[in-house]
Design goal:
Length: 183
């Protein structure tokens, strides 16, 4: 049985870190990346702790094991998360619903990952529904970016209700910025 909840222990952060490493793009073959998807950034334990201090991430557990996560990444995280700052720099000129993106109440889903043995079981939707339950009273939408080379991830986000609002390229990749509007 799966349980969706917020992170509440250092052990859970360690398990997120391990799952992150196992699914990191550079640790997977190209065939595996295309078939299963991948995560782009490595999150250190220290970075995860700092992020969690601002707002807890959502995890899915089977018994005591973290089998999926969706990182909660507030805008304030950019002060100590260089990749997030790069993304925000690229989004400064973006409007959403005819107003500057950064005038809106939103946060980022920093990364989502489901352990390989648990894919196809509806856990992505469960993660996002828990995000909505936890944070929709404080925020109007959740935003994330997806590598154009990760169509499996884009398909999962769109199935949840995300829509593409912007595409850009930086030194590391080409990105599609997506929003799931809760209002």
């Amino acid at each position: 049985m799966f349980t969706a909840c917020t992170v509440s222990s250092k052990e859970e952060l360690l398990q997120i870190h391990q799952l992150n490493q196992q699914n990191l793009k550079q640790n997977l073959s190209i065939a595996k990346q295309k078939q299963e998807g991948f995560v782009s950034w490595l999150y250190s334990i220290e970075l995860l702790k700092k992020m969690h201090e601002l707002a807890p991430s959502i995890i899915i557990k089977e018994n005591d094991r973290v089998v999926a996560y969706a990182l909660t990444t507030l805008v304030e995280t950019s002060s100590f998360h260089p990749e997030l700052q790069t993304m925000f720099d690229n989004l400064q000129k973006v409007n959403y619903k005819n107003k500057p993106l950064f005038s809106c109440r939103f946060y980022c889903m920093g990364q989502i990952c489901v352990a390989e043995a648990y894919r196809g079981k509806g856990l992505v939707n469960l993660l996002y529904q828990q995000h909505k339950k936890e944070f929709s009273s404080q925020y109007d939408f959740i935003l994330t970016e997806i590598s154009v080379n990760n169509p499996r991830s884009l398909k999962a986000q769109q199935k949840t209700g995300f829509e593409i609002i912007y595409t850009y390229a930086d030194a590391s990749d080409e990105w599609q910025v997506v929003v799931w509007d809760w209002k």
